[in-house]
Every structure is written in structure tokens, then in C-alpha cells.
Design a protein that fits this description.
Radius of gyration: 19 Å
Structural class: alpha/beta
Low-confidence stretches: none
Shape: elongated
Distance between the termini: 50 Å
CATH class of the largest domain: Alpha Beta
Largest sheet: 5 strands, parallel
CATH architecture of the largest domain: 2-Layer Sandwich
Helix content: 25-40%
Mean pLDDT: 95
Strand content: 15-25%
Number of strands: 13
CATH superfamily of the largest domain: Tetrapyrrole methylase, C-terminal domain
CATH topology of the largest domain: Methyltransferase, Cobalt-precorrin-4 Transmethylase, Domain 2
Order of helices and strands: EHEHEHEHEHEEHEHEEEEE
Length: 241
């Protein structure tokens, strides 16, 4: 059996019970070395297969090969395996190679949910996820999606917002959002969520300091009704109070 496991944002306290149970019972763990460190105290005595960054195809292939021998193997990624994680790639590869392997996806807590809980309740109405990384998706397509989401006044969760190689993507995305949203729109920032250096901050589009944002940050841009009360970011569900 091949398990595709989402580890959550970083803390074992935010791992699901099913993820913990799966990690403990499998024979082999396959993962990016940073993710291996998140569960290293749970995997002693197991076979560990690691690769560096951008080794997703290699990891997926290895996990499928191991599972095809009859062993139980877990391929791990942070957050939820089906949200910018490993689930899609593994399923695509298994289908393409016609590997007759039993596969189960184990869900995890994604960064937007963990950050939202720390910030208040910003996701109480319709929202969307958009990754600003153009490694897999053309930047023009990403901009179209940002435009559509902002025009529809979704709460927008921006994943992979800014890196050294892509220092201007967040700025460009916010410029698009400002076509439809006020500069005073509430923005929540969750950096290194559920990890030792976690930083949670509430600001606005106009006051957001882009230099504070990196690839381990989730940026949640509110809708026109999102507001701050008692230092908490709140998007009303629509109840009459």
C-alpha cells in the first residue's frame, strides 16, 4: 500500500490522527529532507528515502516502486497532500506507468487553515487558494486567476507569495487586487505557521511590508466585509446580529 500523507503545517500537534497512525505503521518513509525532520522522532528504525528540493518526480517514482514490491510506504509532504502537495503527481505517475498499486491519500491541515485559526476567522465566507509560484503555472495564467478572484471579491489565500527568485510576484498580484479592492482591505500574514518561529500579523494591503514575506508565509487578503475586532481578523458569514 502506498500512502500519500499530509503532515500539516509543521507541528505534530496539528497532524491528523490518521496521518500519525499511518506514519507509525508503514515500513518506509519517502520525503524531502525538510519534511523528514518534522517527523524524525516518529520514524526511527524505518527505511528512509530522501531527495533534495524539486525532487518530487524522483520521490514519487521511488515510492511507487517500493509499494509495488508489496511493502507499506508513505510519501510525505507538508500541509495537505492534495493542496500543492504530492497527491496529484503520485496519482498521475501511477496511472501513466500503469502500476497496479493500492494508493490512499491521507489529508492534512493546510497552511491557510492553520494561519486562519491563528489570525481569527478570515475564511468564514467564500475563499480561494492561489499559488504565486510560476514554476508549474505560467505567470500570465496566475495573474488572470488573481484578477478573477479579486473581481469576485473572494477572500484570497496566497501561497508561495515571495522568494529571492520571484521578488516581485506578490507586488504584482497586489496591484491586480487593488483594481477591485480598497487599499484598506484587511490582510492577514502567517509566517512559519505552527513552527517555533511562527509570526502572525494583521495589516492592510497599503501597509503590508513585502520584505517580511517569504516562501514559508501565507498571505490572506480579506473581502470587502472583512474587519478587525479585538485583534482578530473576521470575515462575516452573513448572520444578522
Amino acid at each position: 500500500m502506498l500512502y500519500i500523507v499530509g503532515l500539516g503545517p509543521g507541528s505534530q500537534q496539528l497532524m491528523t490522527q490518521e496521518a500519525i497512525k499511518t506514519i507509525k505503521k508503514v515500513d518506509t518513509i519517502v520525503g524531502y529532507i525538510t519534511y523528514i525532520h518534522l517527523v524524525e522522532d516518529m520514524i526511527k528504525g524505518k527505511k528512509i528515502v530522501t531527495t533534495g528540493m524539486r525532487g518530487e518526480i524522483e520521490r514519487s517514482k521511488k515510492a511507487i516502486e517500493i509499494a509495488a514490491t508489496g511493502k507499506d510506504v508513505a510519501i510525505i509532504s507538508s500541509g495537505d497532500a492534495g493542496i500543492y502537495g504530492m497527491a496529484g503527481l503520485v496519482l498521475e505517475m501511477a496511472a501513466k506507468e500503469d502500476k497496479h498499486v493500492d494508493i490512499k491519500v491521507i489529508p492534512g491541515v493546510t497552511a491557510s487553515i492553520a494561519a486562519a485559526a491563528a489570525l481569527g476567522a478570515p475564511l468564514m465566507n467564500d475563499f480561494c487558494h492561489i499559488s504565486l509560484s510560476d514554476l508549474m503555472t505560467p505567470w500570465d495564467v496566475i495573474k488572470e486567476r488573481v484578477d478573477a478572484a479579486a473581481k469576485a471579491d473572494f477572500v484570497i489565500c496566497l501561497y508561495n507569495p515571495r522568494s529571492k527568485g520571484r521578488p516581485n510576484n506578490l507586488h504584482e498580484a497586489l496591484d491586480i487586487i487593488l483594481k477591485y479592492k480598497s487599499p484598506d482591505t484587511v490582510v492577514g500574514i502567517g509566517k512559519d505557521v505552527a513552527r517555533k518561529r511562527e509570526i502572525d500579523k494583521i495589516t492592510t494591503i497599503k501597509d503590508l511590508d513585502e520584505t517580511e514575506i517569504n516562501m514559508t508565509t501565507i498571505v490572506i487578503v480579506g473581502n470587502k466585509n472583512t474587519y478587525v475586532a479585538d485583534d482578530r481578523m473576521i470575515t462575516p458569514r452573513g448572520y444578522t446580529l
